[in-house]
Amino acid sequence: MKELIELINKAHSVAILTHSSLDGDALGSSLGIALALDYIGKKVTVFLGEPIPRSLEFLPGQNLISSDYDKTFDLAISLDNSDLKRLGDRADIYISAEKKINIDHHTTNSMEADSLWIDQNASATGEMVYKLIKAMGIPINKDIAACIYTAIITDTGGFRYSNTTPESHIIAAELIKHGIPFARIAKKVFDIVSHSKMSLLKKTIQNLTLYNEGKV
Predict the structure, then answer these.
(1) What's the whole-number mean pLDDT along residues 91-120?
(2) Options 3.90.1640.10, 2.60.120.200, 3.90.550.10, 3.30.428.10; CATH of 2-189
(3) Farthest-apart Cα atoms in the chain, separation
(4) For the chain, first and last CA: distance in Å?
(5) Dihedral of alpha carbons 190, 191, 196, 199, sign
(6) In this prediction, what percent of the chain has a pLDDT beyond 70?
(7) Mean pLDDT across the chain, nearest whole number?
(8) Closest alpha carbon to 135 in 106, 166, 103
(9) Strand boundaries in 59-166, DSSP class E
(10) Which of 42, 141, 156, 175 is the most buried (most CB within 10 A)?
Protein backbone atom coordinates (compact mmCIF):
# COMPACT_ATOMS: atom_id res chain seq x y z
CA MET A 1 0.00 0.00 0.00
CA LYS A 2 2.99 2.31 0.52
CA GLU A 3 3.66 2.60 -3.22
CA LEU A 4 -0.02 3.25 -3.87
CA ILE A 5 -0.13 6.08 -1.32
CA GLU A 6 3.02 7.63 -2.80
CA LEU A 7 1.38 7.75 -6.23
CA ILE A 8 -1.69 9.45 -4.79
CA ASN A 9 0.37 11.99 -2.83
CA LYS A 10 2.36 12.97 -5.93
CA ALA A 11 -0.72 13.46 -8.13
CA HIS A 12 -2.62 16.72 -8.46
CA SER A 13 -5.43 15.67 -10.81
CA VAL A 14 -7.09 12.31 -10.15
CA ALA A 15 -9.68 10.45 -12.22
CA ILE A 16 -11.85 7.90 -10.42
CA LEU A 17 -13.31 5.08 -12.53
CA THR A 18 -15.40 1.99 -11.88
CA HIS A 19 -17.16 -0.70 -13.89
CA SER A 20 -20.34 -0.28 -15.91
CA SER A 21 -23.64 -1.68 -14.55
CA LEU A 22 -23.21 0.36 -11.39
CA ASP A 23 -23.81 -1.21 -8.00
CA GLY A 24 -23.41 0.04 -4.46
CA ASP A 25 -19.84 -1.15 -4.02
CA ALA A 26 -18.69 0.42 -7.28
CA LEU A 27 -20.35 3.79 -6.69
CA GLY A 28 -19.91 3.87 -2.91
CA SER A 29 -16.19 3.11 -3.20
CA SER A 30 -15.74 5.68 -5.97
CA LEU A 31 -17.51 8.52 -4.18
CA GLY A 32 -15.94 7.59 -0.84
CA ILE A 33 -12.35 7.82 -2.08
CA ALA A 34 -13.22 10.88 -4.19
CA LEU A 35 -14.51 12.75 -1.14
CA ALA A 36 -11.42 11.77 0.84
CA LEU A 37 -9.01 12.94 -1.85
CA ASP A 38 -11.00 16.12 -2.37
CA TYR A 39 -10.60 16.79 1.36
CA ILE A 40 -6.79 16.81 1.05
CA GLY A 41 -6.85 19.16 -1.93
CA LYS A 42 -6.66 16.83 -4.91
CA LYS A 43 -8.52 17.82 -8.07
CA VAL A 44 -10.76 14.77 -8.23
CA THR A 45 -13.22 13.79 -10.94
CA VAL A 46 -15.45 10.71 -10.91
CA PHE A 47 -16.45 9.34 -14.31
CA LEU A 48 -19.49 7.09 -14.65
CA GLY A 49 -20.66 5.33 -17.77
CA GLU A 50 -24.37 5.57 -16.97
CA PRO A 51 -26.95 7.33 -14.78
CA ILE A 52 -26.96 6.56 -11.07
CA PRO A 53 -29.56 3.90 -10.11
CA ARG A 54 -32.54 5.15 -8.10
CA SER A 55 -31.49 3.06 -5.12
CA LEU A 56 -28.18 4.95 -4.91
CA GLU A 57 -29.31 8.50 -5.66
CA PHE A 58 -28.95 9.42 -1.99
CA LEU A 59 -25.16 9.02 -1.95
CA PRO A 60 -23.14 12.18 -1.22
CA GLY A 61 -20.24 13.37 -3.35
CA GLN A 62 -22.11 13.53 -6.64
CA ASN A 63 -20.81 17.06 -7.20
CA LEU A 64 -17.48 15.40 -8.05
CA ILE A 65 -19.00 13.48 -10.98
CA SER A 66 -18.39 14.78 -14.50
CA SER A 67 -18.66 13.62 -18.10
CA ASP A 68 -16.02 16.07 -19.35
CA TYR A 69 -12.81 14.15 -19.87
CA ASP A 70 -10.95 15.91 -22.64
CA LYS A 71 -7.68 16.04 -20.72
CA THR A 72 -4.99 13.78 -19.30
CA PHE A 73 -4.93 13.14 -15.56
CA ASP A 74 -1.88 12.73 -13.34
CA LEU A 75 -3.45 9.62 -11.88
CA ALA A 76 -6.35 7.30 -12.70
CA ILE A 77 -7.76 5.01 -10.01
CA SER A 78 -9.88 2.07 -11.13
CA LEU A 79 -12.09 0.63 -8.39
CA ASP A 80 -13.98 -2.66 -8.14
CA ASN A 81 -13.12 -3.34 -11.77
CA SER A 82 -11.28 -6.39 -13.07
CA ASP A 83 -11.34 -5.75 -16.82
CA LEU A 84 -10.53 -2.68 -18.92
CA LYS A 85 -13.46 -3.50 -21.22
CA ARG A 86 -15.90 -2.84 -18.37
CA LEU A 87 -14.90 0.82 -18.43
CA GLY A 88 -16.35 1.19 -21.93
CA ASP A 89 -15.58 4.57 -23.51
CA ARG A 90 -13.95 5.69 -20.26
CA ALA A 91 -11.07 3.27 -20.83
CA ASP A 92 -9.27 6.08 -22.66
CA ILE A 93 -9.13 8.09 -19.44
CA TYR A 94 -7.41 5.22 -17.65
CA ILE A 95 -5.03 4.44 -20.51
CA SER A 96 -3.96 8.06 -21.02
CA ALA A 97 -3.33 8.84 -17.35
CA GLU A 98 0.31 9.34 -16.40
CA LYS A 99 0.01 6.85 -13.53
CA LYS A 100 -2.56 4.14 -12.84
CA ILE A 101 -3.86 2.39 -9.72
CA ASN A 102 -6.25 -0.56 -9.63
CA ILE A 103 -8.03 -1.51 -6.40
CA ASP A 104 -10.23 -4.59 -6.50
CA HIS A 105 -11.39 -7.62 -4.51
CA HIS A 106 -12.32 -9.98 -7.35
CA THR A 107 -10.45 -13.26 -7.84
CA THR A 108 -9.59 -12.58 -11.48
CA ASN A 109 -8.17 -9.25 -12.62
CA SER A 110 -6.58 -8.41 -15.97
CA MET A 111 -6.07 -4.69 -15.35
CA GLU A 112 -2.60 -3.23 -15.88
CA ALA A 113 -1.46 -0.61 -13.38
CA ASP A 114 1.57 1.07 -11.84
CA SER A 115 0.20 -0.08 -8.50
CA LEU A 116 -2.17 -3.04 -8.32
CA TRP A 117 -3.91 -3.85 -5.03
CA ILE A 118 -6.03 -6.99 -5.08
CA ASP A 119 -7.46 -8.38 -1.86
CA GLN A 120 -9.61 -11.44 -2.49
CA ASN A 121 -10.38 -11.70 1.22
CA ALA A 122 -12.11 -8.32 1.29
CA SER A 123 -15.89 -8.63 1.14
CA ALA A 124 -16.11 -5.40 -0.87
CA THR A 125 -13.83 -2.86 -2.48
CA GLY A 126 -15.34 -0.46 0.03
CA GLU A 127 -13.42 -2.25 2.80
CA MET A 128 -10.18 -1.63 0.92
CA VAL A 129 -11.05 2.02 0.38
CA TYR A 130 -11.69 2.36 4.11
CA LYS A 131 -8.24 0.92 4.90
CA LEU A 132 -6.59 3.19 2.34
CA ILE A 133 -8.21 6.33 3.72
CA LYS A 134 -7.20 5.35 7.27
CA ALA A 135 -3.63 4.56 6.16
CA MET A 136 -3.37 8.01 4.55
CA GLY A 137 -4.48 9.66 7.77
CA ILE A 138 -7.50 11.30 6.16
CA PRO A 139 -10.36 11.85 8.61
CA ILE A 140 -13.53 9.96 7.76
CA ASN A 141 -16.58 12.21 7.95
CA LYS A 142 -20.26 11.33 7.78
CA ASP A 143 -20.43 11.56 3.96
CA ILE A 144 -17.41 9.33 3.41
CA ALA A 145 -18.75 6.87 5.97
CA ALA A 146 -22.14 6.70 4.22
CA CYS A 147 -20.48 5.90 0.89
CA ILE A 148 -18.27 3.16 2.28
CA TYR A 149 -21.07 1.65 4.37
CA THR A 150 -23.22 1.46 1.23
CA ALA A 151 -20.39 -0.30 -0.58
CA ILE A 152 -20.01 -2.93 2.13
CA ILE A 153 -23.68 -3.73 2.69
CA THR A 154 -24.21 -4.04 -1.06
CA ASP A 155 -21.58 -6.70 -1.65
CA THR A 156 -22.34 -8.57 1.58
CA GLY A 157 -26.09 -8.51 0.93
CA GLY A 158 -26.64 -6.68 4.19
CA PHE A 159 -24.16 -9.05 5.92
CA ARG A 160 -26.13 -12.11 4.78
CA TYR A 161 -23.71 -13.46 2.15
CA SER A 162 -20.95 -15.95 2.92
CA ASN A 163 -18.25 -13.41 1.97
CA THR A 164 -19.11 -11.43 5.12
CA THR A 165 -16.22 -11.48 7.60
CA PRO A 166 -15.68 -10.30 11.17
CA GLU A 167 -13.74 -7.39 9.67
CA SER A 168 -16.78 -6.42 7.59
CA HIS A 169 -18.76 -5.98 10.81
CA ILE A 170 -15.92 -4.17 12.58
CA ILE A 171 -15.52 -1.64 9.77
CA ALA A 172 -19.28 -1.18 9.52
CA ALA A 173 -19.43 -0.51 13.26
CA GLU A 174 -16.73 2.16 12.94
CA LEU A 175 -18.64 3.80 10.10
CA ILE A 176 -21.90 3.81 12.08
CA LYS A 177 -20.10 5.77 14.83
CA HIS A 178 -20.01 8.73 12.42
CA GLY A 179 -23.77 9.11 12.70
CA ILE A 180 -24.80 7.73 9.33
CA PRO A 181 -28.49 6.78 8.92
CA PHE A 182 -27.60 3.11 8.49
CA ALA A 183 -31.16 1.79 8.61
CA ARG A 184 -32.32 4.30 6.00
CA ILE A 185 -29.32 3.47 3.78
CA ALA A 186 -30.15 -0.25 3.91
CA LYS A 187 -33.78 0.45 3.07
CA LYS A 188 -32.84 2.51 0.02
CA VAL A 189 -30.24 0.02 -1.21
CA PHE A 190 -32.39 -3.09 -0.87
CA ASP A 191 -36.02 -1.93 -1.00
CA ILE A 192 -36.12 0.51 -3.91
CA VAL A 193 -36.99 -1.32 -7.13
CA SER A 194 -35.73 0.12 -10.41
CA HIS A 195 -38.12 0.94 -13.25
CA SER A 196 -36.66 -1.87 -15.38
CA LYS A 197 -37.13 -4.48 -12.63
CA MET A 198 -40.65 -3.24 -11.94
CA SER A 199 -41.48 -3.50 -15.64
CA LEU A 200 -40.11 -7.06 -15.77
CA LEU A 201 -42.11 -8.01 -12.67
CA LYS A 202 -45.26 -6.58 -14.22
CA LYS A 203 -44.77 -8.62 -17.40
CA THR A 204 -44.07 -11.76 -15.37
CA ILE A 205 -47.27 -11.39 -13.35
CA GLN A 206 -49.32 -10.66 -16.48
CA ASN A 207 -48.08 -13.87 -18.10
CA LEU A 208 -48.42 -15.99 -14.96
CA THR A 209 -50.55 -19.10 -15.30
CA LEU A 210 -51.75 -21.12 -12.32
CA TYR A 211 -52.26 -24.90 -12.35
CA ASN A 212 -53.04 -27.59 -9.80
CA GLU A 213 -55.54 -25.64 -7.70
CA GLY A 214 -53.64 -22.38 -7.60
CA LYS A 215 -50.08 -23.65 -7.86
CA VAL A 216 -47.81 -22.17 -10.51
Answers:
(1) 94
(2) 3.90.1640.10
(3) 70
(4) 54
(5) positive
(6) 89
(7) 92
(8) 103
(9) 75-79, 99-104, 115-118
(10) 175
